[in-house]
Amino acid sequence: MPELLKKGLLLVLILAAGSHMTACGCKPRVVRPKPAAGSQAQPQVIHVANHGWHTGVIIPGREINREMPVLEDRFGDAPYYEFGWGDAQFYQAKEISFRLGVRALCWPTDAVLHVVALPDEPETCFPHSEVATLFITKEGYDSLREFISLSFARNSQGLPRALARGIYGDSHFYRAEGTFFLTNTCNKWTAKALRSAGRDIPVTFSFSAGSIMNHLRRTVTTPAR
Length: 225
Prior knowledge:
By secondary structure, the protein is α+β, with helices and mostly antiparallel strands. It has helices at about 5-20, 60-65, 70-75, 90, 100-105, 120-125, 140-150, 185-195, 210-220; strands at about 45-50, 55-60, 80-85, 110-120, 130-135, 160-165, 170-180. It has one domain (about 40-220). The radius of gyration is 17 Å and the shape is globular.
C-alpha cells in the first residue's frame, strides 16, 4: 500500500476513534482456553506473519483439516494454513483506493476470511514478511482452532460459505462472521486469535500490524509451559 494512503487511513482512524469506540461488530468473539487438566503435552507452535498493513495467523494443517474437512477437500493435505480476516471489498479489491479504505473503516461492512494453503515452512513461504514464532499450550491451541472455525460464516448445511479465489498462492476467500469496522479490524481479529490461544495481548487497541508485532517482540521469548 502506498505510504501516503497508509498515513491517510491512520489519520482517519485517529480522528474517528474517539466517537466510534463502540461494541459494533464484536464477532467473532475470543474463545477462552479451558483450564489445563494437568497434562504434560508439548508446547504447540503457531506463527504470525506481518505483511505490512495486515497480519495473518498460521497454524499446522493436519488438525484443522480434521476439524474442518471442507478445507482438506479444497486444499488437500496442506502442511500449514494462513488465516486472515478483513473487509470484504477492501480485502478482495484488485486495486486499493483511499475511498475503499475510508469506507471500510467508517461504515460497518461485511467481512471475509482469506485462507492460504502453505506448502512449506512459513518463513520460506513469506521471505519478505516478518514471521513470529509462538509456543502455546495444547489448551490454547485447541481454543485457537475453535476461534478460527467460529470465524467462518456458514450456510444452512453448516458448511463455510466459499466466495472467490484468494489474492496469493493457493488461497480462497470465505464469508466470515462479524462486521468490519473501525473498532473491529483485521489486526484486531489477529489479537482475538492470540487471546484465544492464551496470549495476554490487549485486544481493544490492537489496530495495526505494528501493534501486534511489537507485542510479540516484547513477549515471545521461550516456549510456553
